[in-house]
Amino acid sequence: MNPARRTLLKILGLTGATLPLMGCERLISNVTQQMGQAIPSSLSLADGLQIDPAFHLLSRAAYGPWPGDLDRVRTMGVDKWIEEQLAPDGIDDTACNLRARRFETIWHEPGTCYEYKKPVLREEITRHTLLRAVYSRRQLFEVMVGFWTDHLNIDLEKGDCIYLKPSDDRLVIRAHALGRFRDLIRASATSPAILVYLDGKENKKGNPSDVPNENYARELLELHTLGVDGGYSQLDVFEAARCLTGWRLRTGWRKGTVYFDPSLHDDGEKHVLGQLIPAGGGAADLDRLVDIACHHPSTARHIATKLVRRFVSEDVTESLVTRVAEVFTATDGDIKSQLRTILASEEFNAAKGLKFKRPFQYIVTSLRALGADTHAHQPLIEYLQRMGQGPFQHPTPDGYPDRAAPWLGTLLWRWNFAFALASGRVPTVSVALDQLGEAIGAIGAIEANAGNANNGLQPARLIPYFFGRAGSATELSALDDYLQAQLDSDLGDANHRAELFALVLASPAFQRC
Predict the structure, then answer these.
(1) 137, 280, 321, 360: which has the highest count of C-beta atoms within 10 A?
(2) Per-domain residue ranges of the chain
(3) Tell me, what's the pLDDT at 93?
(4) In the chain, % of residues over pLDDT 70
């Protein structure tokens, strides 16, 4: 029997008598802690003035380290961790599944989702996404789910997208996040959610006078494949739109599913990006178009650039982009091979602490660093919305920006979140600061420190845990100044410690990865 399953059955057996007295979420929290989501009794810290390589990897190829992750990566080695993450099906994610799989609308077909109220659908897909990011052991997979969700952005608020995005998330994004790029684009091209969001269902030629709707064709070339400077023309957009005519959405039986209507398809000869698509292709015109776009040299460079920007630096290194684009071409768009190239590169290793965390990453990283217990209810989601990155709510097809400038205005809300989180004032989120502090050696015996400014805290140990490196003279001085200022305060021990943890979470260094 699977060890995780055996543990689950054991715990359920022990708690069965009290089950009626416990909330479902409280039980799940208890079970998942027994399955490995608890804070270990002892944690090692990064050392040295440079960010630890394992910490750096966990900050980019994961949503930051969960307590104990740094020790595990150091023990198994960076290369082995990367290979483990590139084979997510081999990673037991039972503990995460207990929190995240119980949202039934995530697993429904589109037609069934129409039976639910919009607020229920919005809440469930948002909570599911956030919980996967926080608790999944398949961290690189979740990072790539976020990457492709932006790349193939769909706003829940347009038309019927809110009913259709759950299946898109499951059958397009998650099914192909670490697969082959061409398969991802092909699945997206006939996704019900994309057909609504980018007006593909309106693209038809029933009469000789009908003009194709170019919206999806334009975004397919400009955003999804070649890129805005990829070398396509307006004529290519028009011809691509002709290839895409006739794909429709059912409105009655099996509502929300896709079918091809040959009577609404332009079946004439087409020329796209210098290649001929013969007349009479029917539904296969779409496949031919996807093949041409995905195998265009500009597509390899466009995807390589976006991946390098996400994992390495906002200011991409051209030599690395070229190498990743070559891997894209040589492997027919294999996403895993591109990630191996990036994560093993000197450019990746040299880019420590250069990227500014977007709000979603900042909140998830904070929750993971503290080993927080949450089921991602609305009070937590509201912080994401206030910072401007509510999942699936970006209105334009380009997805949330992956540059620092648009997010600098969120700093006040980040500070508010840091202090609320550390002090236990985010409803439905709990943190065990004393337990974490003891595990990293930041909290000693209070009695032995009676009368000292640190009141049992070793602030120098907080910095390497959260930053992945030793504190600079400026950082240590700032902490010491804060502690000295508290000598005459009437703050209790718990409040004092919460403020120190919050200061680290709100610090400039923790905004970067």
Answers:
(1) 321
(2) 198-294, 297-350
(3) 98
(4) 92
Q: How far apart are CA 114 and CA 163, in angstroms?
A: 6
Over its C-alpha atoms, the chain yields an Rg (Å, rounded) of 25
What backbone torsions phi and psi does residue 274 show, to the nearest 5 degrees?
A: 80, 5
CA distance 12 to 416: 38
Residues in the chain: 513
Cα end-to-end span (Å), the chain: 39
- pLDDT, residue 497, reads 85
Average pLDDT by stretches of 10, the chain with 513 residues: 43 39 80 94 93 98 98 98 98 97 94 97 98 98 98 98 98 98 98 98 95 98 98 98 98 94 98 98 98 98 98 96 98 98 98 97 98 98 97 98 96 97 96 95 52 57 96 89 70 76 96 97
Q: How far is CA 332 from CA 156, 296, 328, in A?
A: 32, 11, 6
Nearest to 54 by CA among 39, 65, 66: 65
How many other C-beta atoms can be found within 10 angstroms of the C-beta atom of residue 463? 23
Distance set, CA 13 to CA 18, 100, 142, 205 (Å)? 10, 22, 32, 62
Neighbours of 109 (CB within 10 A): 16
Q: d(Cα 251, Cα 270) in Å, to the nearest integer?
A: 30
CA within 13 Å, CB half, 427: 5
Bridge partners (DSSP) listed for residue 276: 271
> Strand 247-249 vs strand 258-260: parallel, antiparallel, or unpaired?
antiparallel
Helices 139-151 and 78-85 pack at an angle, to 10 degrees, of 60
Retrieve residue 283's tokens: 């539904």
Report the C-alpha gap between 494 and 184 in whole angstroms.
49
SS3 sequence of 90-126 = HCCCHHHHHHHCCCHHHHCCHHHHCCCCHHHHHHHHH
pLDDT single digits (tens) 126-135:
999 999 999 9
DSSP for 15-69?
HGGGGGGS-HHHHHHHHHIIIIISPPS------SSSPPHHHHHHHHSSSSPPTTH
Give the count of beta carbons closer than 10 Å to the beta carbon of residue 42. 11
Q: pLDDT by residue (tens digit) across 298-351? A: 999 999 999 999 999 999 999 999 999 999 999 999 999 999 999 999 999 999
Q: What are phi and psi of 449, to 5 degrees?
A: -110, 15
pLDDT at residue 11, as a whole number = 40
The pLDDT of residue 365: 98
Residues 6+ apart with CB under 8 A from 458: 441, 442, 443, 444
Q: What is the dihedral of CA 406, 411, 417, 422, to 10 degrees?
A: 130
pLDDT value of position 487: 66
